[in-house]
Amino acid sequence: MVASQTGLYGMFHSTNYGAGSWTADNLGDCGVWPDWFMSALAASPVNSNLLLAGGGHGPRACRSIDGENTWSALGSGADSIHADHRAIAFNSAGMAFIGGDGGIFSSTDQGVNWRGWEPSGYHGPP
User: Fold this and answer.
1) pLDDT per residue over 66-81, tens digit each?
2) Which domains are seen in the chain, by residue range?
């Protein structure tokens, strides 16, 4: 992910571990906006073509289902995910998680549908 103060510049991938050329990805409707203290990227351990990306601003985190060639905004339920994506991870079964100060959200279907897990009693920073 490469970004500036005005938003996401692009997503790039390499097929030789970064030792040569980089290819710009098709961002589609991906509106993620990483910043210096909040950006996250994770790859599924059970589907190497599934990646999730998030940042500190923007309407939604994004996903790629074709190995990072094209990106799209997340599916149903993702509207309620708070914009600051501080962590993105997958468990060993491929369940996806996005965490931020708005709670933890999970998806069991490759990022199509999302469910919120807001911590009990959490009311934001003091």
Assistant:
1) 887 888 888 767 766 7
2) 24-110 (2.40.10.500)
